[in-house]
Amino acid sequence: MRYNYIAIEGNIGAGKTTLATRISGIYNGKLILEQFEDNPFLAKFYENQEKYAFALELSFLAERYQQLKTELSNQDLFSDFTISDYFLNKSLIFARKTLNDDEYHLFMTLFNIMNANLPRPDLLVHLYASTERLQRNIKHRGREYEQRIADEYLDKIQDSYFNYLRQQPQLRVLVLVINAIDFVAYSSHLEMVLEAIDQEYPRGITRIRLGVDAP
């Protein structure tokens, strides 16, 4: 891989962890995976978003920051690059849709303090899939607390991602549209993704549609 630090992003169920893990194994990368299943507020949030939103977002921010600060500052001499299945800035994206204005402004103040101490990824890969595809993936992986996620919530998160990314011209962002492929099931589809990622891109957003959409 030509990039030293790659972050994989995307909506819930897009395949971030699977892709990051595959890339790490194939190209000898240091893998950083978000430990979201250990968060005690996650299942509670899906039951009562208004009550648990601030606690959830703040705990996620603290956990993500601590993990990235530790992992990115410790050089792994046996790995050729670093790849993670999240980007700290996703904390802002989710918080904007779940917190009220006062909570969000406090959250953003804390985020800015933490984010100033972390390196930015050399390439941010955003996996885009339709809401219908995301719901199929969510049901297939079978996490009980995710089964009641509404289409409207996924739509809001996706809109937030794109709104945020459009305002970050200093980032090098590759948006991969993956509706027509299945890189988990087909090695040839995975090769398409790997080839797309391992290219030189300018700063700003580059969008690539992989495969051919089914009729």
Summed up:
With 215 residues, the protein is α/β, with parallel strands linked by helices. The chain is built from eight helices and six strands, in the order βαβααβααβααβαβ.
Can you describe what's shown?
The mean pLDDT is 92. Helix content is 49%, strand content 15%. It is an alpha/beta fold. The protein contains 8 helices and 6 strands; from the N terminus they run βαβααβααβααβαβ. α3 (49-73) packs antiparallel against α4 and α4 (90-98) crosses α7. The radius of gyration is 17 Å and the shape is globular. It has a single domain, classed as 3-Layer(aba) Sandwich (Rossmann fold).
Share of residues in strands: 5-15%
Broad structural category: alpha/beta
- CATH superfamily membership, which one? P-loop containing nucleotide triphosphate hydrolases
Helix content estimate: 40-55%
Shape: globular
- State the end-to-end distance: 34 Å
Mean pLDDT: 92
Name its key features.
215 residues, single chain, six-stranded parallel sheet, Rossmann fold
Could you give the topology of this structure?
Layout: E1 5-10, H1 16-27, E2 29-32, H2 42-47, H3 49-73, E3 81-84, H4 90-98, H5 101-115, E4 123-128, H6 131-141, H7 151-166, E5 172-177, H8 187-197, E6 204-209
Helix pairs in contact: 3-4, 3-5, 4-5, 4-7
